[in-house]
Amino acid sequence: MKLSIIIPVFNEEETIGLVLKKVLALKISGVEKEVIVVDDGSTDATAPEIRNTKYEIRNVKIFRHGKNLGKGAAVRTGIQHATGDYILIQDADLEYNPKDIPRLLEPILQGKAKIVYGTRLRRLPNLSRDERTPHFFLHYLGNRLLSFLTSILFGQWITDMETGYKLFPRKAVKDIPLAAKSFDFEPEITTKLLKKGYRILEIPIQTNPRSYSEGKKLNTVKDGAIALWTLLKYRLID
User: Fold this and answer.
1) CA-based nearest residue to 91, from 33, 159, 189, 166
2) pLDDT tens, 151-207?
3) Among 44, 46, 65, 94, whose CB has the most other CB atoms within 10 angstroms?
4) What's the number of domains the chain is made of?
5) Domain span including residue 18
6) Neighbours of 13 (CB within 10 A)
7) Computed from CA positions of residues 58, 61, 4, 89, in that sequence, does the dihedral angle turn out positive or negative?
């Protein structure tokens, strides 16, 4: 099986090199890796970091947007150039550990699932770590609410619709028109896969959330409202 790992990146000069090296270090029996990096108009030293690391990685494809268009646009560019049987989204900030990728692939390779999400929320809030601040506790509640609404609207229980770790067949999205430009990519692709009749298997994962001072880009209120509208739009209108 060939796996296309899409890495959308915007201003992640401190982590993109390490992410690429961690992805390179993955050894998965029977799986060929294709790495697709989409630099979404970074204005820091991300581009040089990518160039410095790419020589260590086989089958790497690098694309660059002339200006920042958003995560959804970067992922869509990656999907357009992917040639693997399966596609996985890997964020560039190291909140998600590439060591979890073989765990996500396992049910695919065993024929037990066609789509796998890595869930961070099959648990109560962790008030001593992940949700220790009011902002992150609100983020947790917002994710749980959006995932609950996804479950109600589309008839399948989902605990973490907003997860960045999504693994799906390339053929599943080949004929799906994707329009998301920003973080609305998460609800859009989830709703459209569910409407096509796919079942999503969730695998618990651990994450290392970073603070907004460390560069976290998601806006809980603004992006949460957009995600809510996206869910309703693709259920009730489109």
Assistant:
1) 166
2) 999 999 999 999 999 999 999 998 899 999 988 999 999 999 999 999 999 999 988
3) 46
4) 1
5) 2-237
6) 18
7) positive
User: What is the band of 57 on the pLDDT scale with cuts at 50, 70, 90?
Assistant: low
105 phi and psi angles, rounded to 5 deg: -75, -25
Structure tokens at 35: 């790495």
Q: What pLDDT score was predicted for residue 56? A: 65
Residue 39 sits in a domain of what CATH number?
Answer: 3.90.550.10
Give the amino acid at 51.
R
Q: How many beta carbons lie within 10 A of that of residue 89, not counting itself?
A: 24
Q: Which residues contact 209 (CB under 8 A, 6 or more apart)?
A: 95, 130, 136, 216
Structure tokens at 89: 């989204």
Distance CA 222, CA 209 (A): 19
Q: Where are the beta strands (DSSP E) in the chain?
A: 2-9, 32-39, 60-64, 86-89, 115-119, 166-169, 200-204
- Beta-ladder partners of 37: 7, 62
